[in-house]
Amino acid sequence: MGQHDVDNITPQPNGSGPHKPLRVIIADDDALARRVLRDALQAAGVTVIAEAADGREAVELTAHYKPEVVVMDVVMPSVDGLEATRRITDRVPGTKVVMLTSTDDVDLGLVGLRAGAVGFLSKSLPPESLPQALRAAANGEAVVSRRMTTALVETVRRVRDDGAGLRPVRSPLTPREWEVLDLLCDGLSTDAISDRLFLSDETVRSHVKKILRKLDVRSRGEAVERARRLRADLMSADGGL
Description:
This protein is of the alpha/beta class. The protein is built from 11 helices and 6 strands. It has a 6-stranded parallel beta sheet, sandwiched between helices. Strand 1, helix 2 (31-43) and strand 2 (47-52) form a beta-alpha-beta unit.
């Protein structure tokens, strides 16, 4: 593994010294990909306690075994990696999810982090460098590429400008509903929100109905205005951040 490969992970865990046993579940619909990951992890002393071929199985196995980390592919049948991550975060909050995907799509990575993942890495990462990243994740560190770190910084900068993306701690909306509302505030249509969050149109409409009911408003426009008022109040209370 070259130094450049290690530098592309932020932060860089210290690979020296003894490691406590790490238990991992691998979720990927590609059997060959699972085998490559399993061999690399086991060679580094990581215990692969189970493998899942789809998101639904990943959730069930995680709830049963409660591993320290789940290595999650994004595109899988039945339940995709994003939805599986949301369910795991809700049902087994002590387990960390690191998404491993063939795409370097920053927007997809941000969606994965919002879904509850602590890491988003490319499958082009040398398998032998993955154990360090997973140990870092198990220790509560975020493991993302430098490009993703830059995107996160830019997101924070945009929030400081107008409050977009801020979410009041005390809110009737779930994190998922805030995701949908954020995109409504950006002017996205149902179809566009579906594409951005990898959800069906029906699911997006269901979330919108819940948002309208919880915010006690009658239209999407009123929901957007309500979100803006909530954020303005929050920024005012925080001294404009």
